[in-house]
Task: structure prediction
Amino acid sequence: MASPKKIGIWTSTSLVMGNMIASAMFMLPATLSSYGSISLIGWVVSGLGAICLALVFSWLSQLMPVANGGPYAYTREGLGDFAAFLVAWGYWLSIWSTNAAIAVAFLSYLTVFFPALGINSMFAVGVGLSAIWFLTWINTRGIRDAGAVQVITTILKIAPLLLVTIGGLVYINTENYFPFNSSGTSDINAITTTATLTLFAFLGLECATIPSGQVENPEKTVPRATLYGTLAVTLLYILGTVVIMGVLSPTTLQTSKAPFADAAASMWGEWARYLVAGGAVMSTFGALNGWILMQGQIPAAAAVDKLFPPVLKTENKFGSPYISIIAGSVFVSFLLLMNFSRSLADTYQFIILLSTMTVLVPYLFSAVSFAILAVRTKQLKWNSATKLTIALLAFGYSMWAVGGSGQETVYWGFLLLMAGVPLYGWSKMRSS
Result:
């Protein structure tokens, strides 16, 4: 059987950018507007934290070029099986919820073109499930086919964002940036709050490391894709928010349900609203594709190491861990159905809340694992103090992000992580 085809720098970078840019970018300017232009500092703070994490993952991918599972593989090498299991378990749970939420957002943006989706639940569920299982099929055909979809959708989602961001520079009214802090709290509190709100827009920066075994020249491609993708998205986030806040008045922005679309319409007319809405549809569709790819890679890597049930490592002729992908999509479909059940909608939202902390755990463990692996492999040289400082900052940023999730989220998130411990015990008994 021929070796599965691998992906290169463009696909790897689009995987990072495509998974980071989902629905949040299209909505955050409206959320941040109630704090004033001081929220731009919040973007910078969270961006710097994300860049520290991107550097850590870049260095880890150089220490372990072929490490399927990314954060999971790094954690296992640095901290052992149990920590790695927690990373894989929490990450997989979080991806289910993330994909269900992205599917809901996809349907929400699609109502601009098909209003019936907003009033006919059966129609909406059918379209949502069709999108999930179409992309599941694409991902079971191998990483090259999934990567091609990711490149195309990333271009289609970024194009309208760039159009509004660059074109809007000439429409900026500087009076819209005042008052600088309209939150009613101190500057420090406003910056902390807005940085907490924006940090979740950076989740996914580690995605190029996860399928590293299927990447061409991973020792060069993965670190470049991780760093270039994170830097590009950070710049787009900050500049895009600058433009939207400058084009729309604070009052208009605070009540906007689609700030980029409203800004485009105010500058160029109604046709531009549909253009941006189309970009939002592509954004969520592309992010769903990228995260479905992730939902297969993590459990497959853990199954190879006998920490997950062995069936999850089963590959087809395309080299795709199709059992893991299909199993994940079954749970994603279940969560999507929960969202359209009035009696279960609150439960669904609660599950989304719980998944927030679990996706940050890999960042904490990866930062520590880098320090351990760098010392163990004697890779720290003249710039060792700088690298260790950045790793410490990345760890601190991740801890701060977990704390920013709220006490209830941390409490229930911890219980959710511990709920997987019996599975770990069962896997250990089977392998002994």
